[in-house]
Structures are given as C-alpha cells and as structure tokens.
Amino acid sequence: MSLSPIFRSFSIDLLAVLVIAGAGSIASAHPDHDAKPRAYDLADHFRPTPIPDRVVLTWSDDPATTIDITYRTAPGVEPTLCQWVEASRILGDHASGAVPESEQTEGTSEPFTSDRGDCLMHSIALRKLAPETRYAYRVGDGVNWSEWHHYTTASRDAKPFEFLYFGDAQNAVRALWSRVRREAHADAPRAAFALHAGDLINASNADTEWGEWHGAAGWLNATVPTVATPGNHEYFIRKLQLTVSDHWRPQFSFPLNGPEGLEETCYWFDYQGTRFISLNSNEKQEEQAEWLDRTLSDLPPARWTIVTFHHPIFAAAKNRDNSTLRELWKPIFDKHQVDLALTGHDHAYARSGLGGPGDQMVGAENAGEGVSTKEGKTVYVVSVSGPKSYPLGQAWDEPRSGSGIQLYQVISVDTGSIRYRAFCASGELYDAFTIEKDVDGAVELIEQAPETPEIRK
C-alpha cells in the first residue's frame, strides 16, 4: 500500500521534530563537555556496613594451635560469631553458603569512634586447633557473613617456612602501596605471615588511611596473618602523653608478654623453631632493653632469632641517627646472637653484612657516637615499601642500598639457613643473601645480590 503525499509529508516533518528534540535532550544531558569529574570522598567508600570488613588474622598465642580474628561492622551488628571447619571437609550449601559441618565460636565486640564516625570492632579467639591444618572460616552476626577464608596453622616442629617483610607503607597506600602488597603475594603465595616494620599509615587516627591499608591487602589480611610493630606515625600526643593509635589494639591482637605499658606493641612469639620479637622503638627503650635481655636469657634457645622495630639502629637516610637505640639494644643483640634486625623509618634501603656496618661509621654525618665493633652476627636491614623517599646518608660498608624505590622482601627460613630476597615493586630482584648456620652455631653470610646497578633518587 502506498502512502498519500500528505501523509508522507507529515511523517517526514514529525521525524524531523523528533530528531531535533532528541538532539536537544542529549545536549542538555551533557551541557559542559569540559567539566571535570567530581572527586569522590574515600571516607564514603570506607563506611562500615552490616557486612564484616577489615578482617585481619593475628596471633596472641601459639601459632600452631590458635588464631585471632578481628573485624569491623556498623554499630549494633551483633553477636560476634565465627564458623570454622577443616577446609578439606567443606561441602557448603549452594543456596545459602552455609557449611553444616562447621563449628561456631562466639567472640566479643566493642564500640569504636573514629574521626569518621561510629562502628563496632569485633574480636574472636580460636583455640585448640590442630597443628599443620588448613581451616576455613567466616565471621558475622549469624545473618550477615563474610566470605569463607582459609588459614593454615603452624607446625610444632622446626620446619621450613617463608614470610614477607615490608618497610613503611605510609603514604598513598591505596594508590601506590597496594601493588607492592599484591606483587609480594604473587612471589610468595604461601607466606606464613606478613611482617610490617611500622608506619603502616601516615596519620595515626585517620580512619580513611586505615581503610586504605586494609583495602590494599583486602582478603589477604584474612588469610595471611599480620605481624606489626608500631612506627612514629602510629603515635600521637594525648594529654601530653605519647599514645599509640586508637585503631591499633582494636584491630590487632598481638601477644601480651611484653613489658607493662607496651601491650601488643612489644612482644615475642615462636614460629616453627624461629623466635620473632617486636620492639617498640617509640618509647620506653631502656625498659625494653632490660626486658629483651631477660627474656632471651630465660627462654629456651631458638634456632634463629629475628627482631623487628621501626627506627633503625644504623640510619640509612641523610641527617638521621638513633644512637640511643644503638647504645641500648645492639649489645643485647650481640650477646644473644640475634640473626636479623628488620626496620623501616628512613624511606630508603640499606643492608649490612654480619654484625652491622662496623667502625668506619664513627664520625659519619648520620652515625653519631656509640657504634660498637662487629662483635655480633646480626644483619641489619632498613627498607621501605611505600612511595615516599629520602636521600641516602653517607654510605655504610653495606653490600646493597638504594633510594627512590619501593620494595618488599621474601624471607625463607630453614633449619640451617635464612634466605633473604628484596624485590622491586614490579618484581625484579634487587638484593639477596643467605645466612648459613652450622650445628655449632657458626654463621656465614653468602652474598647473592644481583649485578644490576643500585637505584638512587
């Protein structure tokens, strides 16, 4: 059927009107093509909800038979529950996500107020677990649950393992540190834990910064336990008193075996034959020296001893020195033959040979007084994982150093050796060595650093 000329004319005119109207609508929907996007406040992204977030694994007791879980929700989300089961036995309901075979443990919660508002912090302690066993767990209030996570308990025996070590993350954590944490996981997917040598964030009580730190690691914090020592940026002044971040203890459950007043910042634990010690270099250094000497004297000897603290005994950055720490702590490290000292703070990289940098540092601009001779066997490391960088000071007699570089370390521990590897953020090997110890305790350091040029800012 053919259309009449009048109808054809009407149709064409109507189509033209619609096209013009449509063009106007499109134009009005995008009135300014040069307008900039509006900045989204990350604080909104990090607001708590009924769904558990910021799930973190830590130890306050024996890693072979226990684990502690902390997490966050919106206010009023209770009770605090954990369902857990051996991972090999999971056969979950495909509709609900529940695992009928799981056991359930109830924990505790406490209200928490940050600069971004109120939330509820939860803590659960799982005990009497079987050594060398992989478990699956989830946390929630009985209705709103996290996803199921895996965690593997340690062995009671001195078996090989590896762990991750990070210097300061501190700045641009979401933007620039997250890639470091994730690259480290790609290199060591079965790491026993992640050790942080302080300054995880920049402002001690800034909840958005803590949100960035939790978000950068994401689910890794829920399956790889965290070991952390506080840096100066985890501290603030309250009523003229130096005080650790309000976030520290609610979100981490560390051992309570340190000096009074330094709970969960100065502590020790053993993992598969190796002793790990966190020292708090921000305060009460003399009391910790006495505690460290007494503790290492009283405890049964361990095959290896590794300490971590924030401020390095031997500074790496220009115009820095921590002579008081060196005078108080290094003689104890020497006396008890500490193997590794893992630190941060200087936003640069430097690593000594056995016993530290040695006498040639006396008189250097960043050395100060009180440098003891190489009587000990400790290897001292200063590292940084975040983007902030300081220029190096006068060089040690160090095998490897660098600045303007983000790094992570993979440290593999065996009965007779510690293998240390430092990697750039993009995964290239930057430094490496192996410490070997024979049955009589004699120590040898084998240099394995690559021949690539050192990086300097």
TrEMBL record:
<dbReference type="Pfam" id="PF00149">
    <property type="entry name" value="Metallophos"/>
</dbReference>
<dbReference type="GO" id="GO:0046872">
    <property type="term" value="F:metal ion binding"/>
</dbReference>
<dbReference type="Pfam" id="PF16656">
    <property type="entry name" value="Pur_ac_phosph_N"/>
</dbReference>
<dbReference type="InterPro" id="IPR029052">
    <property type="entry name" value="Metallo-depent_PP-like"/>
</dbReference>
<protein>
    <submittedName>
        <fullName>Alkaline phosphatase</fullName>
        <ecNumber>3.1.3.1</ecNumber>
    </submittedName>
</protein>
<feature type="domain" description="Calcineurin-like phosphoesterase">
    <location>
        <begin position="171"/>
        <end position="349"/>
    </location>
</feature>
<keyword id="KW-0378">Hydrolase</keyword>
<keyword id="KW-0732">Signal</keyword>
<dbReference type="InterPro" id="IPR008963">
    <property type="entry name" value="Purple_acid_Pase-like_N"/>
</dbReference>
<dbReference type="InterPro" id="IPR015914">
    <property type="entry name" value="PAPs_N"/>
</dbReference>
<dbReference type="InterPro" id="IPR004843">
    <property type="entry name" value="Calcineurin-like_PHP"/>
</dbReference>
<feature type="signal peptide">
    <location>
        <begin position="1"/>
        <end position="29"/>
    </location>
</feature>
<dbReference type="InterPro" id="IPR039331">
    <property type="entry name" value="PAPs-like"/>
</dbReference>
<dbReference type="GO" id="GO:0003993">
    <property type="term" value="F:acid phosphatase activity"/>
</dbReference>
<dbReference type="GO" id="GO:0004035">
    <property type="term" value="F:alkaline phosphatase activity"/>
</dbReference>
<feature type="domain" description="Purple acid phosphatase N-terminal">
    <location>
        <begin position="52"/>
        <end position="153"/>
    </location>
</feature>
